[in-house]
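Page 37, continued from 36.
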C-alpha cells in the first residue's frame, strides 16, 4: 500500500518536517532502506546508520531530527509509531470465508458463515467458530472448543479439551492448546498418570507463537488473560495463571500452578518452578531461574554472565570453595570479637 508522508503524519499524530507529497511504499531499516521507503530510529545503537540512510523519511525523536538527511516524522515513541506505520503500509490480506472442500466439519459444530475453515482442518462436534475466524490448514478443533470472533489460527494449530479462545487471538503454526498436563503419581518404582480433567481459558487479543504449548488444568483451568503475548516454543504447564498484558519471550518454561501477575515480562529462556506467585509489573531478565515467589514489582536476574572460558573456570573453582571460606571467616570474626571483648 502507498501513502504520502502527509497521510502518515496525520495517522501517526507525528510532526512532519519535509515534503508531505512524498510517496511511501514500504518500510526498511536505516541501513537497507531505499528511496520510497520509511525507516525509524528507536534504539541508539543504530544512530550510526542515520546520516547515510537512503530512506525517504525517518521516524524519530525531535533530538535526532537534525542528523537526518531526509524528511522526518517526529514523535515521542518512534518504535510504537513504526509498528503503526508498518500496519498501514503492509495491511493484512483479506481473509476468505466458507469451508474448504477438504475440511472435515462435524454437523454438530457451529461455524459462523463469515469464518473460514481451511483444507485438512477438522472441527469436531459442539465446537464453536465465531464470526470472521480463520482456521488455517491442518488445524484441529476438538469437541466443545470455542474460538472467539476475529481470531486466527494460522496452520496446524490444535485446540483440545473444550478450551476457550477469546476474540482477536492469533495462534501461530504448531501451537497446541489443552494437551494433558504432566501429572504423575509415584507408585513404587513406576509412575501412574493422573487424569487431567480441567481445560484452558484464553482471553481476548492474545498472541501465541509457533510451537508453544499450553497444558490443560489438572482440575481447574489453565488461564491466560487478555492481551498476553507469548513467543515461540514456550511451555505453559497445567493450572498456570498468566495475568493480562504480560509478555513472555521464546523458550520460557513455566511449571504447574504458578501465578504470574499483570504487565510482567519474562525474557528468553527463563525457567519458573511450580506453585509460585509473581506480582504485577515484575520483569525477569534472560536465562534466569525463578525458584521462589516474587512479592514486589521490579526487575530480577539470576545466573552467571558470559565471560572468557578461562576466567569462568577459575570462578567455578572458587565457587566450590565458597562454603569453606565462609566458615573460616566466621571463625575469624568470632576469634577477633573475643579478643575485642577481653580488652
Amino acid at each position: 500500500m502507498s501513502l504520502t508522508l502527509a497521510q502518515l503524519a496525520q495517522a501517526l499524530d507525528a510532526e512532519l518536517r519535509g515534503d508531505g507529497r512524498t510517496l511511501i511504499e514500504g518500510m526498511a531499516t536505516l541501513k537497507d532502506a531505499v528511496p520510497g521507503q520509511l525507516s525509524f530510529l528507536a534504539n541508539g545503537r543504530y544512530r550510526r546508520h542515520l546520516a547515510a540512510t537512503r530512506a525517504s523519511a525517518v521516524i524519530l525523536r525531535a533530538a535526532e531530527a537534525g542528523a537526518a538527511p531526509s524528511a522526518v516524522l517526529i514523535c515521542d515513541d518512534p518504535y510504537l509509531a513504526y509498528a503503526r506505520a508498518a500496519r498501514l503500509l503492509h495491511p493484512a490480506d483479506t481473509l476468505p470465508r466458507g469451508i474448504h472442500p477438504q475440511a472435515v466439519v462435524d454437523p454438530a459444530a457451529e461455524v459462523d458463515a463469515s469464518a473460514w475453515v481451511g483444507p485438512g482442518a477438522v472441527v469436531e462436534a459442539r465446537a464453536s467458530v465465531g464470526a470472521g475466524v480463520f482456521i488455517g490448514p491442518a488445524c484441529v478443533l476438538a469437541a466443545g472448543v470455542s474460538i472467539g470472533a476475529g481470531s486466527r489460527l494460522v496452520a496446524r494449530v490444535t485446540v483440545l479439551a473444550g478450551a476457550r479462545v477469546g476474540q482477536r487471538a492469533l495462534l501461530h503454526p504448531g501451537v497446541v492448546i489443552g494437551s494433558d498436563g504432566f501429572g504423575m503419581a509415584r507408585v513404587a518404582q513406576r509412575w501412574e498418570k493422573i487424569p487431567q480433567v480441567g481445560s484452558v481459558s484464553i482471553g481476548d487479543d492474545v498472541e501465541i507463537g509457533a510451537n508453544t504449548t499450553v497444558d490443560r488444568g489438572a482440575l481447574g483451568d489453565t488461564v491466560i488473560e487478555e492481551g498476553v503475548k507469548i513467543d515461540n516454543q514456550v511451555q505453559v504447564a497445567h493450572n498456570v495463571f498468566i495475568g493480562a498484558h504480560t509478555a513472555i519471550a521464546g523458550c520460557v518454561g513455566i511449571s504447574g500452578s504458578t501465578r504470574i501477575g499483570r504487565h510482567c515480562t519474562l525474557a528468553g529462556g527463563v525457567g519458573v518452578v511450580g506453585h509460585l506467585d509473581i506480582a504485577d509489573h515484575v520483569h525477569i531478565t534472560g536465562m534466569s531461574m525463578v525458584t521462589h515467589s516474587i512479592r514486589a514489582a521490579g526487575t530480577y536476574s539470576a545466573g552467571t554472565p558470559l565471560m572468557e572460558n578461562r576466567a569462568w573456570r577459575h570462578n567455578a573453582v572458587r565457587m566450590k570453595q565458597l562454603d569453606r571460606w565462609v566458615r573460616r571467616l566466621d571463625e575469624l570474626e568470632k576469634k577477633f570479637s573475643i579478643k575485642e571483648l577481653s580488652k
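The longest helix spans residues 309-342. Flag for discussion at group meeting. The longest strand covers residues 37-40.
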